[in-house]
TrEMBL record:
UniProt-listed GO biological process terms: lipid metabolic process
GO cellular component terms given for this protein: membrane
Transmembrane segments: 55-78, 211-235
Span of domain Fatty acid desaturase: 64-332
The keyword Transmembrane appears for this protein: yes
Tagged with keyword Secreted: no
Protein name: Linoleoyl-CoA desaturase
GO molecular function: oxidoreductase activity, acting on paired donors, with oxidation of a pair of donors resulting in the reduction of molecular oxygen to two molecules of water
Record's keyword terms, sorted: Membrane, Transmembrane, Transmembrane helix
Lineage summary: Bacteria, Pseudomonadati, Pseudomonadota, Gammaproteobacteria, Pseudomonadales
Length: 362
């Protein structure tokens, strides 16, 4: 359980001012080092993906197939996490590079970038962990907090979560369609039809590239198309599982908190910062680990400063932690395995209705 100290109005305002000042100092310091970094990440994505696809052309020969699949999976992780996600937050708009423009970047997953910019950048980051406003709390299929109203299908949520993890890119894409509202009659089919068309277009583009174009190229060059197809499927699976793990560990751990709609009425800047801190979880690790998570291992800093280049989060974390502790706030961090274990425990415990949960202290 969290043990945060409640802040007075003056303390809340001072807390917000300190974090605003930290953000402004970082913005003023952005420059060529940051630009060079993201260009190198972009180059690394291209190298991993194309070298991986090239190695898959050697067919089922174990060393090349395994290495090719691993490289392609690595490239997809880097593109999804450190490149696409961060670029679409506008973290590098100041570079005026059309390929790194947050409003137009299209990433290498099933969900259209425009979907993500709304459901994630706008809705999630505005209403982080607010029940009934942030659809990322359980993604509509998982009960992770006792404050969520229990529904019978939650009994099977270990199964739903497993399917969600394996197909995570599709889960993220479908979220924006709000099919639950269509089924309840709160959203008409006419309203959702353009979104479904956009969704289908992006799906066909992704499937065409990974599961048709490159296997056909393999046939054209006399290579084994099935080996190429299998490599692409496994690479996407690797990316889905990794992304799922990192995201769930950033939001649904033992110390993560949720909030009511009433608690954000008239919310001040300081209170918004405080909600980001209390609703987020960090992961310990080295530089390579942080890059592979898209620096979402610093989920606290990402929620506080989503438009700052993620490579800055490690340095910001030192100051954020000091500020949090000075104001008596829990700075939630731990190893990947420890944090993920608490997520799994939440999934298991809160599958049951309240009357069957012996203790809600997860």
């Amino acid at each position: 359980m969290r043990s945060d100290r409640e802040l007075s109005t003056d303390e809340m305002n001072a807390f917000g001012h300190e974090l605003d000042a930290l953000r402004q100092r970082t913005l003023a310091d952005l420059g060529e080092v940051d630009a060079r970094y993201i260009r190198r990440i972009r180059a690394a994505v291209r190298f991993c993906c194309w070298s991986g696809r090239g190695l898959l052309m050697f067919g089922w020969f174990a060393p090349t197939w395994l290495l090719g699949t691993a490289l392609l999976g690595l490239g997809k992780i880097l593109e999804n996490m450190e490149l696409g996600h961060n670029v679409m937050h506008g973290q590098y708009d100041w570079m005026n590079d059309p390929e790194l423009a947050g409003r137009s970047y299209e990433w290498d997953i099933a969900g259209p970038g425009d979907f993500w910019r709304h459901t994630h950048n706008h809705v999630h980051h505005t209403w982080t962990n607010v029940l009934g406003m942030d659809d990322d709390v359980g993604y509509g299929v998982v009960r992770l907090f006792p404050e969520q109203r229990w529904k019978p299908f939650y009994r099977w949520q270990p199964l739903w979560v497993t399917i969600q993890a394996l197909l995570f890119q599709y889960s993220v894409a479908i979220q924006h369609l709000r099919l639950d509202k269509v089924f309840k009659g709160k959203l008409s089919k006419e309203e959702v039809r353009p979104l479904i068309k956009q969704f289908n277009t992006k799906i066909l583009r992704q499937w065409g590239k990974d599961y048709l174009c490159f296997p056909l190229l393999a046939l054209l060059f006399g290579a084994n198309a099935l080996a190429v197809l299998a490599g692409n499927i496994v690479a996407n699976l690797i990316r889905n599982l990794w992304t799922f793990t990192v995201i769930f560990c950033g939001h649904f751990t033992e110390q993560a908190a949720v909030f009511s709609k009433e608690s954000v009425v008239g919310e001040s800047r300081g209170h918004w910062y405080l909600r980001q801190l209390r609703g987020s979880s960090n992961l310990n690790g080295g530089p390579l680990f942080h890059i592979l998570t898209g620096n979402l291992s610093h989920q606290i800093e990402h929620h506080l400063f989503p438009d700052l280049p993620a490579r800055r989060y490690a340095a910001l974390a030192v100051e954020v932690r000091e500020i949090a502790e000075r104001y008596g706030q829990v700075y939630n961090n731990g190893s990947l395995w420890r944090q993920f274990a608490t997520v799994l425990k939440r999934i298991w415990v809160y599958r049951c209705p309240p009357a069957e949960v012996v203790s809600t202290q997860v």
